[in-house]
């Protein structure tokens, strides 16, 4: 039987004899040392490959895109602009909310990495800077976007400084609805969040849409009180966003819930064929009856124009139309031609031009004197889940081109590629080592 020692001796006959090793088979010492060195190299290569894979996995778990440095929040109004298109952050972006006034607030799908290859997705609220157009995710405590959506539950002030939303309790389980307990506002220039609440109501029931007053000082809403269900049990309230002070605009008892409007100062709302206006500092109230049922009404800059969306009174009111003029008297029954169905009054470009929207997807800038209109295309990926909210005052400044947003691709791709290369190299090394062992055997 030929033993391993015999084979080693046969190979060693042709190898150089190691000095000082006369007691070994000639050349065996050098051959042995060379084999030991090769074995050590194979083990080192395998250990290095495994270590590299471990490092790549750890990096994949921790990888994040670095958000850009925040800009100063206090900038002149002339430097604030609406983008020509509202573009959300890239779905993989980790950019935080930009400091300073926002041009728009919207909803978009956010993707987060889990491990080296996994991911999870959720709808989240983002804001677009009115200063430089960069977008980032808003951290709004007490928000459950998956069950709420955007329209009706959120509001952006006309000057872009404040974001308001309905505040909910933490749900008891994932995906469950949670009761509303109040409202909150975010000051985008400081990052401060203020909680607002009706002290006599522990849980808010049947709250209506949120809106800001035209001067961005008050958050407006109405909600049901304990006197019983139905529209006549709603209380109309306004919260000062700086102090949290609550003003009761109307006590329960009205047949209709208010439809919020705007003006350069005070609170505007409509109900039926009447537009109401309140100065919260003096308590002065005015009511202006109109021939049409009012959907929404707005005064222009310095009260030098008036516009409202209305339809014929009654259950069969028909199609909404835009009524506008240089005063309330002129606008009362003066319908302007428009090629789209008006749904909102988004703001004013100046005292002659009102911005009319059809749920913020189709926009017309209308001259209230001549009736001529200009189309503005705001279509973008940001409208996929909900039409974004826009800062109405910024229509007075020129629009600027949209900014390309970072974070559109998985930041772990370089690590995936590196892991694949290292893994392939390790596999080749292991196969080579295994083949060498078979040859020697």
UniProtKB/TrEMBL annotation:
Keyword terms of this UniProt record: Membrane, Transmembrane, Transmembrane helix
User: Where, by residue number, does the polypeptide cross the bilayer?
Assistant: 44-63, 415-433
Please, which domain of life does this record's source organism belong to?
Bacteria
SUPFAM superfamilies recorded for this chain?
A: DPP6 N-terminal domain-like (SSF82171)
Q: What's the name of the protein?
A: WD40 repeat domain-containing protein
């Amino acid at each position: 039987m030929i033993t391993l020692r015999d084979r080693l001796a046969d190979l060693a006959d042709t190898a150089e004899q190691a000095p000082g090793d006369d007691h070994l088979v000639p050349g065996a010492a050098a051959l042995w040392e060379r084999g030991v060195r090769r074995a050590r190299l194979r083990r080192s290569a395998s250990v290095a490959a495994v270590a590299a894979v471990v490092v790549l996995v750890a990096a994949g778990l921790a990888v994040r895109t670095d958000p850009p440095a925040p800009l100063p929040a206090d900038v002149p109004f002339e430097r604030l602009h609406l983008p020509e298109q509202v573009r959300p952050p890239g779905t993989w972006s980790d950019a935080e909310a930009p400091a300073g006034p926002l041009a728009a607030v919207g909803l978009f799908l956010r993707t987060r990495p889990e491990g080296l290859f996994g991911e999870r997705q959720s709808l989240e609220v983002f804001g677009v800077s009115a200063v430089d157009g960069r977008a980032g995710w808003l951290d709004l405590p007490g928000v459950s976007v998956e069950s709420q959506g955007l329209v009706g539950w959120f509001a952006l002030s006309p000057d872009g400084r404040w974001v308001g939303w309905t505040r909910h309790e933490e749900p008891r389980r994932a995906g469950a609805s949670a009761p509303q307990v109040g409202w909150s506002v975010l000051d985008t220039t400081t990052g401060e969040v203020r909680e607002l609440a009706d002290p006599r109501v522990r849980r808010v029931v049947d709250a209506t849409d949120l809106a800001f007053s035209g001067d961005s000082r008050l958050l407006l809403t109405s909600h049901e009180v304990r006197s019983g269900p139905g529209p006549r049990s709603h209380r109309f309230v306004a919260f000062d966003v700086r102090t949290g002070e609550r003003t009761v605009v109307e006590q329960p008892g009205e047949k209709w819930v208010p439809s919020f409007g705007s003006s350069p100062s005070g609170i505007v709302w409509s109900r039926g064929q009447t537009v109401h206006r309140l100065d919260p500092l003096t308590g002065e109230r005015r009511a202006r009856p109109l021939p049409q049922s009012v959907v929404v009404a707005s005064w222009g800059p310095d009260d030098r124009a008036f516009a409202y969306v209305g339809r014929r009174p009654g259950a069969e009111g028909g199609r909404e139309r835009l009524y506008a003029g240089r005063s309330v008297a002129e606008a009362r029954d003066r319908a302007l031609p428009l090629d789209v169905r008006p749904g909102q009054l988004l703001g004013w470009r100046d005292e002659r031009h009102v911005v009319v929207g059809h749920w913020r997807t189709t926009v017309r800038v209308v001259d209230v004197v001549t009736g001529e209109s200009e189309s503005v295309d705001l279509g973008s990926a940001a409208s996929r889940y909900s039409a974004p909210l826009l800062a109405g005052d910024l229509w007075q400044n020129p629009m600027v081109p949209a900014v390309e947003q970072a974070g559109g691709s998985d930041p772990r791709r370089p690590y995936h590629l590196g892991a694949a290369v290292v893994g392939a190299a390790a596999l080749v090394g292991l196969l080579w080592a295994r083949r060498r062992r078979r040859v020697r055997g």
